[in-house]
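Thread: Newbie trying to understand structure tokens

Hi all, I'm a second-year student working on a class project, and my supervisor (Dr. K.) asked me to get a predicted structure for one chain before our next meeting. I've only ever worked with sequences, so writing a 3D structure as a token string is new to me. If someone could post the tokens and maybe explain what I'm looking at, I'd be very grateful. Here's the chain:
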Amino acid sequence: MTVAHIHTIKMTADQYFQLGEDPPGVHLELIDGEIIVSPSAYPRHSQAVSELHAMLLNYIKPLKLGKLFLDTDVPFERHTVRRPDICFYATPNLHRVSPTRLSPPPDLCIEVLSPGNIDDDRINKFNLYQSHGVPHYWIIDPEARTAEAYALQAGKYSLTAIAKSTETPHFPPFADLALPLAELWMP
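---
Reply by user tm_fold:
Sure, no problem. This is what the structure looks like when written as tokens:
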């Protein structure tokens, strides 16, 4: 009896982008050549992303500091395309942005935790963004009502600031921007 060897073929980022937009209510990402499907965000998650985006946009746009992107694919590796909740490209790095694709690394990635993605954001994305030179990474936790800012120093993320509840931190790379955390949380 002959046993056939089955080889799994990994999808590439280019193949992934040919799929087009996600079906309604579904969130797709490519991780190590496999499509990962996750449900739409909880209202608590969506509220935090929406409010934070508004705060950042109102600060960044008038100063022409760069561009923000919500839930947009970034091909970090040949077989890995991740979708930060919010990412920022500073004006000097806008050459990494085309009408059809974002190229890594963004200057800032922000992830808002949901009950089902905590390990992915705190471990997998943390390590991916760090290894691909994303200078700043923020983790927002609507359940714990905390916000953490990490900055890349000598190739490793270092916690630069942490805030909770109703505090108003100033996180790098936007040292002049006050972030009233109370506005991010649902009652």
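A couple of things are worth pointing out once you decode it. The longest helix spans residues 43-63. The chain has one domain: 41-183. Feel free to ask follow-ups in this thread.
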